[in-house]
């Protein structure tokens, strides 16, 4: 698969042959769904918790005698029926994470890359470097490229001026190639890869 390379100024910078095994697959929604669900579940804090009956600081004295009152049989004010009592079957602190095989995660990433390539939402730029960290400058360059909602993947390290300039732009995410993931790819309209990022991805999946 051949794709044209551009610069941040919108000029042509040659072309690149993309690996069909990474960017030319037929996207599978089930794989993408499994990986996104795994990512979102893993990042949940799971710190929500309500008190059970044994954790409520209320008297354990019997409210009234067992028989003869006509009321229900109660033994403590910490029961869920009473105001100030415990909550029945409430959430408890736990991990929401579940397992997903490493090979499935790697395959899902290739399908996410292929989905962007197939949908003409993949842009390859020569490099992402700026001489000054000014958001206004970067916004003008993104306007030339038609980027308003995009994930930008740099090389092993992202240029500091570029990262600082993009930080204040809404719907723009910047990550090094090590941080590329399925969820961030799918949540943005465009995927922008540098030439170094493409080389790193092809080396990773060899």
TrEMBL record:
NCBIfam families per record: rplD_bact
Family: Belongs to the universal ribosomal protein uL4 family.
UniProt keywords, alphabetically: Ribonucleoprotein, Ribosomal protein, RNA-binding, rRNA-binding
Subunit structure: Part of the 50S ribosomal subunit.
Alphabetical list of InterPro entries matching this protein: Ribosomal_uL4, Ribosomal_uL4-like, Ribosomal_uL4_dom_sf
Gene Ontology MF annotations: rRNA binding; structural constituent of ribosome
Segments of this protein annotated with the region Disordered: 67-98
GO biological process: translation
Full protein name: Large ribosomal subunit protein uL4
Function: One of the primary rRNA binding proteins, this protein initially binds near the 5'-end of the 23S rRNA. It is important during the early stages of 50S assembly. It makes multiple contacts with different domains of the 23S rRNA in the assembled 50S subunit and ribosome.
Any one of the GO CC terms: ribosome
């Amino acid at each position: 698969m051949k794709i044209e390379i551009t610069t941040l100024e919108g000029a042509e910078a040659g072309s690149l042959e993309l690996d069909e095994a990474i960017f030319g697959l037929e996207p599978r929604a089930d794989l993408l769904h499994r990986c996104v669900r795994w990512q979102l579940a893993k990042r949940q804090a799971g710190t929500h918790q309500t008190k059970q009956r044994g954790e409520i600081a209320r008297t354990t004295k019997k409210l009234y005698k067992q028989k003869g009152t006509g009321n229900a049989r109660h033994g403590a004010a910490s029961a869920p029926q009473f105001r100030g009592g415990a909550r029945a079957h409430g959430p408890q602190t736990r991990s929401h994470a579940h397992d997903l095989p490493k090979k499935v995660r790697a395959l899902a990433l290739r399908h996410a890359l292929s989905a962007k390539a197939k949908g003409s939402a993949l842009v390859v730029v020569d490099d992402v470097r700026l001489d000054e960290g000014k958001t206004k400058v970067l916004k003008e360059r993104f306007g030339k490229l038609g980027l308003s909602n995009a994930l930008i993947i740099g090389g092993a390290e992202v240029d500091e001026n570029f990262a600082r300039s993009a930080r204040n732009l809404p719907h723009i995410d910047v990550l090094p190639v090590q941080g590329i993931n399925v969820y961030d790819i799918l949540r943005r309209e465009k995927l922008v890869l540098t030439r170094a990022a493409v080389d790193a991805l092809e080396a990773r999946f060899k």
